Amino acid sequence: MTLAVGRLLLVGCGKMGRALAQGWLDTGLDPDNLAAVEPHVATAEIARDLGIHTVSDPTELASDYMPDWVVLAVKPQVFAEVAPGFAGYARISTYLSVVAGKPVAALRALVGDRAVIVRAMPNTPAAIRRGMSVAFAGSGVKPEAKVACTALLGAVGEVAWIEDEAMMDAVTAVSGSGPAYVFLLIEAMTDAAVAAGLPKDLALTLAHNTVAGAGELALGSEDTAATLRRNVTSPGGTTEVALKVLMADGGLPDLMKKAVSAATARSKELAG
Length: 272
Description:
By secondary structure, the protein is an alpha/beta fold. The protein is built from eleven helices and eight strands.
């Protein structure tokens, strides 16, 4: 299989940038069609070990270098500083930004009004090609570019598109931040198991595999999560009494709504 999306310039080789690049290479991208800009020496060395041609500054690229895609995978804190350095590609490239909290308008203000931009929010399971990415196409993005972008993001997991960019704040709060919620659940289950008398290593094994197995079951089932939950819950059994605690007023459903609401609000703040 060959990932035929043209020439890619990756800006930022941190964890998400490397996850994307590894997915592209594993899916058949010609290594000669991938270059990266990463100023941090140690991070750049890791990228080179993956077979990515990496430079520390865009001025080190060949003067006639013309990528089809500029993929921005930098931290929001350096976005305004880094993005203008790639404004020269606005007339020839499509930008794919995976920078959290930064809308299309913010990138367009830095690289030019005519820039063609796709904004996407992948999450960390992209590192094992089980990510969830949600994308929004800015004005001027052609259908064939959406197809190519779906292939780029699909190399590391599932892809969904939204028509309203305002939804991206909630997307960030749910799937972008969501892995951390699941990791916290694993921590909490492990600690609870230890408190109930289980050895730490066994508690951790039970928590890890229960969460992973339940996720796989939900993903592969035609039943809703609510139905699957009810299927496990025998009247008067252990699961029922536990769920009465978790689902009480102020319990897990209410806490999750508060958490997602707080993360959504913070995403909106980062856009400013």
